[in-house]
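Amino Acid Chain and Its Fold in Token Form
===========================================
Scope: a single protein chain, as residues and as a discrete description of its fold.
Amino acid sequence: labelled as such and written in the usual single-letter residue code.
Position: the record begins directly beneath this header, with no further notes in between.
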Amino acid sequence: MRYWNKFVDEHVMNYVSMWGWHRMVGVIARSVESGEFEKLLERIPLYEQREKWKTARSGFSEADLANATRKIEVAVDKVEGQLAKSPWLAGDVFTLADVNFFSHCGMMLERMFPAIGNSQRCPRLLDWVARMRARPGVAKALAGPDKTNPALRTFTGEVH
């Protein structure tokens, strides 16, 4: 389990997060007028977070996004391979590793990355996602109302 949690924390989360920031937080950051945006940045205590907000406002580079996509592809392929050997990431039982990957990548894979998260590339992973969603605690958590700003639900910023 430790291996998979470390893998998710170091090799998955940041790259999925970059795409989320690019597609969603950038919409928010660009909607704030200049001057006001800088005032808001002053309230963020961590330098790295201030820089991330600035980057989200201006946009991540194509090279950074391409690298993030490659890392996500590697992660999906690795998880697909593991699920060929066992029903859960760390073996025969459900563990925190499954929760970790689901929360950082698995639950939104098909929606955020349809070219990667599809039945041709990762059928075992998609079956695992369905099993995760069917777990009572996960189903209850996901059944709550979607309070996401409608402009952010598409991951493009376009309101439909």
Q: What stands out?
A: The radius of gyration is 17 Å. The longest helix spans residues 62-85. Confidence is low (pLDDT under 50) at residues 156-160. The chain has one domain: 2-144.
